[in-house]
Amino acid sequence: MSTFGQVFRVTTYGESHCRSVGCIVDGCPPGMALTEDDVQPQLSRRRPGQSNLTTPVAPTQRDEKDRVEIQSGIECGVTLGTPIAMVVRNQDHRPHDYTETDLYPRPSHADWTYIQKYAVKASSGGGRASARETIGRVAAAGIAEKYLKLAYGIEIVAFVSSVGKACMPFIHAQDGAGAKSKAILDDFYTMLSKISRSDVDADMVRCPDAACCEEMRKEILEAKAENDSVGGTVTCVIRGLPAGLGEPCFDKLEAKLAHAMLSIPATKGFEIGSGFRGTTMRGHEHNDPWIKRDAAGNDRALGTATNNSGGVQGGISNGEPVYFRVAFKPPATISRNQETCTYDGVSGVLATRGRHDPCVVPRAVPIVEAMAALTIMDALMVQAARQHTAGRLPAIPLQPSMSGKAPAPNAAGTEGALAEATE
Amino acid sequence: MSTFGQVFRVTTYGESHCRSVGCIVDGCPPGMALTEDDVQPQLSRRRPGQSNLTTPVAPTQRDEKDRVEIQSGIECGVTLGTPIAMVVRNQDHRPHDYTETDLYPRPSHADWTYIQKYAVKASSGGGRASARETIGRVAAAGIAEKYLKLAYGIEIVAFVSSVGKACMPFIHAQDGAGAKSKAILDDFYTMLSKISRSDVDADMVRCPDAACCEEMRKEILEAKAENDSVGGTVTCVIRGLPAGLGEPCFDKLEAKLAHAMLSIPATKGFEIGSGFRGTTMRGHEHNDPWIKRDAAGNDRALGTATNNSGGVQGGISNGEPVYFRVAFKPPATISRNQETCTYDGVSGVLATRGRHDPCVVPRAVPIVEAMAALTIMDALMVQAARQHTAGRLPAIPLQPSMSGKAPAPNAAGTEGALAEATE
Amino acid sequence: MSTFGQVFRVTTYGESHCRSVGCIVDGCPPGMALTEDDVQPQLSRRRPGQSNLTTPVAPTQRDEKDRVEIQSGIECGVTLGTPIAMVVRNQDHRPHDYTETDLYPRPSHADWTYIQKYAVKASSGGGRASARETIGRVAAAGIAEKYLKLAYGIEIVAFVSSVGKACMPFIHAQDGAGAKSKAILDDFYTMLSKISRSDVDADMVRCPDAACCEEMRKEILEAKAENDSVGGTVTCVIRGLPAGLGEPCFDKLEAKLAHAMLSIPATKGFEIGSGFRGTTMRGHEHNDPWIKRDAAGNDRALGTATNNSGGVQGGISNGEPVYFRVAFKPPATISRNQETCTYDGVSGVLATRGRHDPCVVPRAVPIVEAMAALTIMDALMVQAARQHTAGRLPAIPLQPSMSGKAPAPNAAGTEGALAEATE
Amino acid sequence: MSTFGQVFRVTTYGESHCRSVGCIVDGCPPGMALTEDDVQPQLSRRRPGQSNLTTPVAPTQRDEKDRVEIQSGIECGVTLGTPIAMVVRNQDHRPHDYTETDLYPRPSHADWTYIQKYAVKASSGGGRASARETIGRVAAAGIAEKYLKLAYGIEIVAFVSSVGKACMPFIHAQDGAGAKSKAILDDFYTMLSKISRSDVDADMVRCPDAACCEEMRKEILEAKAENDSVGGTVTCVIRGLPAGLGEPCFDKLEAKLAHAMLSIPATKGFEIGSGFRGTTMRGHEHNDPWIKRDAAGNDRALGTATNNSGGVQGGISNGEPVYFRVAFKPPATISRNQETCTYDGVSGVLATRGRHDPCVVPRAVPIVEAMAALTIMDALMVQAARQHTAGRLPAIPLQPSMSGKAPAPNAAGTEGALAEATE
């Protein structure tokens, strides 16, 4: 439904043409400095009409301001721990008058499925299936991100990794195993370790690889010139995540991330770490060896030499960067006539209406970051519940095989036969 | 955590070496014929030791019977609507004695992350991270599947679509656009429309393409010979699904499926419909045109000519087959020595222990089917709640643009200007 | 937290002095006629300043308009099935300046507990603990009530049953068993079967018993004259409820109602049916005998001759009126000096501030109705999910002892020994 | 449904005559010593047949052992943090043969409502509506109670406070205000502060007041002699609870407790603190003045001089003892013929079957304690999530009116006008 999260819970509302869109964030930690200025930047990065690459920008076509207004839950710039409601007004909320094009459910849009589900749909735009619905998520994530940064130094950065057939080298390099591929992957991991949002925003395509960026721009402009659209992928890295997040068995960290990402409109796929390319690898090369870490003042002394796991093992974060990639289909709204049929099953041609966004992936970047932040924030709070209740228990001695701590020399219990346990 | 679903809710329990594993299924529709014989077949398909391709089969190594015992919720072979508890006993539940190998967290296993999360872990096997945990899911899904079949004729069939580099032709064909690719894809869609579980089980590799099956077998045996392991992908199709399932915005059908699949141990990726390959397509070729359907006695008069959407639009099923692919990494447990380090950060070699399953994808087939069934069952019940409460409301006239029904000739409201709505 | 309901879900937000208060209603059945006019009446009944019995009414003191603005989820006056956000602006949302009185946590208020919980609190009024928070609930219930009325003819009416020591006769009559008591109770049940909101609103005390009403008014005015406050009880009846609502074991209908009612500020107790007085009765007089019902066109052929059960048995509605009583303490805010201590533990006197509502129960009437409506609406939808999924199963013959249907004459299985089953 | 709790989640299963009853406890803090011996004592206190006051004890009638078997989630006597499944076998699980009495839905039982809800019911005993269902709750609470004791020193003690018309003096004393009443109440609060379970178990009636106990025994034996049953109330105190538990607005601590208590079979009412009698008090006498507390080493420096609030304010615990009272109706199963009608609406007499428990309140004592423990445990974990995430934020200065801390002398912001805020 429209709520995400178990303890840090976000509920969104709004269609493309109703009075406003927004959300309620319930469960925000109290005592955090927060103003609308913390929330607005990502909303502005998400906004249509930022460049002629994405949504057409003629002022008469698009003039959304998308200013967020916090309704509750903060006072004097401090969170109270109570629900934080946020509202972003829609500029246009007239119901839509019927036209010829309404005879047709738009191909690969949600018109027909909404009517199957609800027996009624919003008259105009995408209704609740519109990308405008994501405003509530991005606003909510502004709060989560501020917390993650302040309390843990966690950074979340997403970027465009492919547009159509133009893709960053790491995507294909991962399939090979030669020296060149290894170099490409090393560059990729280095990039993940330091890329920032301002790096990403250096070009409106939001791909940090300058050469690749040009190819992507060409894909977009070509699609635009042909009144067509083009898909792409967004890759995201989460750095500074503590180990221990994610709830086996159903709410593994990767499962929640996958859920979060596939809830974004127009997504068709998700992969974490080695992902689909990892399925072609052998175990001995896919396994990430443990190494000692330089971790000042904490007990997470270990890290991994490689990161095919993508920062999760057994559904739980291991302290390495979490990275994943999300597939976006080409936008269904195109400026071309399409052969299809009416709601009544009569074949015909759905005429083009207006000009449209040829590619959504640059604008999807902050949305992917938002859903990542919401997922991590909730996982952190659930783990805090466990960790701090467990921390009040009297310490009890554990078997070495249950604690990862080697037994004292000559201690009992070290010589038994190993129970075979392959499952 | 360990509960999945909003109305049809499954809660599982159990580690690899405790007394038993199992689940409670809450919310099962009452009045359905059900015995253990409905649940056992998929448990047996899931069981290790079915062939020398997967888990080694020497009787002393593996002799799990995995017989399910229903504890509650049925009487005289009929479901009561009350919680159905199911128990499968573990054969071996001695705690594990400490050995040299316990000095090391196993690479790409959950040993280290469990200790980070819980500060304690099961001494033996994979504990809760073991694939044995999936028994509860598969048992629960036996109930869901029976319902889906009886009440809707829904069929769920999964199969191995790749092992290592050996993959079914449709996977790469989808990247091209030539005539040959088209033929391969046509074959793929035809196969999806009729494949059965017995087709899949004709070969223990569980790939329905005989030629490809041989290549996969070679991949598995080669990995086995090298004391290594190999990954793969499982593709799953759901046929007969009514339109209207899936709950925008966060619980879109594909989001819940992705969540479900990424909660299976060893998974690294999920894609629905055109998936990652769809990101390279143009909108005009990716859009699925609507066509009239021959649907006796229902109002779902439309279908799609192609199915790049994978049966979902706007997060809601459209009545076409839902299909998706899941990526499994190569098993982390291999029969080779591995350079790694101890819990204390001391570099060393983790010695091999025993022989292990070189490839899990054939056994993952019923687990993928199970999670699909649980997801669909819950989505069906949530939609039933809406549909049948809405169905009691007095009918009210809807604007044509809200109903997909053309206005009567000369009716008012058909001439207004179209509100531009691209988002 | 701030969400109520499993399928029909309400999330509220807002403090007494933030920008606005309101809610998001998720899961509303689509296709229902709905405008702000459906929601406003109960908000107006809830509003402070309706009479000089409750909140003081001088215009400078209270001038809340409490006009609801629907933000989303409806179009052209029809619900879309998507989340319905509602906003009611606060008139005054300046942060509060510190004064002498802020040295003291107010006795029996939430000042101190909020600081213990959140380490921060809203500076003014009751913050989130204010009765103003209930606006979101009452608005949400306007939607639920409209559905319940349209689809099931369900009616929910609450009234003031006691103020201080002035109470309606049924409350004490229930303890006795004489002829007079029986007559009083008969009158009570008759009243429950037909009382309407306009009956209740005939007097601003909102007690339908004219004589009792006068006594209550005296209690209120006496408390007011003494700068004191007084508590009371609200009784509520739900008529027209279908049998079968409520979810064993934890979500029994009475359990959810109790949860709902005790979540209203200032409540201290809940009883359903015979309630606490039933604890003094014997089983043979408390048991409600079954009788044939005149139920046109449905299979709920039975009713009960008495209704000590309060319309629920085993946590499930039985089709008889559900009635319950809710205890409200005297308001903690009084216009008297109080001996207490400061946050720092220094004894002192908290000086009076202004004039306050001596009695909240008349205004609590629509809030009790609201929480009842939200509880019933959710229970209905959960039951619809079960009933309509079960309804698609092929019929199977049931044992007579499982179906309540007598076996055919000479049928097998009627002679076995009775298993003793007292638990 | 059958799951209780948000973070510490208990799911129960089982009918009176299926194979076993039990539960899964998900979210238990890891690293706690736990064996079946921690769980068994309360199960034994709950068991029928403990005395001739409650369930008849002839060995042929009742010989339940109710031994719990832990299936998972612990190893070597330590909790792993994974789900803990527990099973208690039923002695008798034959389906019940049809007899004459099955023609009749039992008055005030769940026979008829289960059939309305599920269209099928268990053939024998109470099925899921049986008190036997509470075994899973009591087992789960054994774990929660151990944690609460070890980590916080929290104690939960319930006792029988009335049986029929025999009731402990505090119940009526609370209505008065004279010196004698004050003395009775003082005794009551003193008793609450130190009563233990062994005090309660000194007499099988489980009332700690010896004189009252005798009267209660007479009520029970009298009802028994008359083949009748009698109701009663159970009062429960929770001591040592930290301040800050309970989640506004819907999940106030008293709301969750009410939910928990009304989910116990046969309950009809709940009141916390002053409860229903508080509704007759004036605000100035009901308000609990703050006093300085001797609280070594914590910042909860305040307590209350009286405790009409019952330990909660604004839905949040204030550190004082939480106490509440629960109403139980007389058991519906009586050893008398009853005039009623059949499922088909034919009037007739339901013949008595066997001998039955005349009074359940002594056995309800551990069940009330169990539900209290589950409620508190979950509230603690949710608050831990908030508190420890908030605790990682950088400290920021708060306005005095937001923090309960007096401003420094001559500080700004102390002279502003007080915003009137009566709601």
TrEMBL record, chains A, B, C, D:
It holds the Pfam family Chorismate_synt. It comes from Syncephalis pseudoplumigaleata. It catalyses: 5-O-(1-carboxyvinyl)-3-phosphoshikimate = chorismate + phosphate. Signal peptide: none annotated. GO terms for molecular function: chorismate synthase activity; FMN binding. Belongs to the chorismate synthase family. Homotetramer. Its cofactor is FMNH2. This is Chorismate synthase. InterPro entries: Chorismate_synth, Chorismate_synth_AroC_sf, Chorismate_synthase_CS. GO terms for biological process: amino acid biosynthetic process; aromatic amino acid family biosynthetic process; chorismate biosynthetic process. It comes from the Eukaryota. Transmembrane segments: none annotated. Residues 35-64, 399-423 are annotated as: Disordered. Pathway: Metabolic intermediate biosynthesis; chorismate biosynthesis; chorismate from D-erythrose 4-phosphate and phosphoenolpyruvate: step 7/7. Keywords: Amino-acid biosynthesis, Aromatic amino acid biosynthesis, Lyase. One of its GO terms (cellular component) is cytosol. Residues 411-423 have a biased composition (Low complexity). Reduced FMN (FMNH(2)). Residues 49-58 have a biased composition (Polar residues). Its EC number is 4.2.3.5.
